[in-house]
Design brief:
The chain has 95 residues and is mainly alpha-helical. 54% of the residues lie in helices and 11% in strands. The N and C termini lie far apart (75 Å). This is Helix-turn-helix domain-containing protein.
Length: 95
């Protein structure tokens, strides 16, 4: 079965421009909901799992300011990119 769409009072160029505009608006709306991967907020559990450490170790590193953390209400969150940066700093051998 074929569906037929009939358009009146418009030409092909106006119709195409309207479709393009709507697609662009939809993509902009979608893009605004995405966070860059480095800015992704992780829970304590996700961060500890990513680093393969216990929650106690993660808390110790946070308390010593080795890994920056953010308090949102009563929850603690970590930015993924900052966790990797902190890990690189911790992993450098001192000469």
């Amino acid at each position: 079965m074929t569906n037929v769409l009939q358009l009146e009072n418009t030409n092909a160029l106006d119709f195409k421009n309207q479709i393009v505009k709507e697609v662009i608006d939809a993509l902009k709306g979608f893009a605004n909901t995405l966070q860059p991967d480095n800015e992704q907020l992780l829970t304590r559990e996700e961060t500890a799992k990513m680093l393969s450490v216990s929650l106690v170790t993660l808390w110790d590193w946070t308390r010593k300011d080795l890994i920056p953390a953010y308090r949102i209400g009563n929850k603690v969150r970590y930015k993924k990119g900052e966790v990797f940066e902190a890990l690189q700093k911790m992993n450098k051998f001192q000469s």
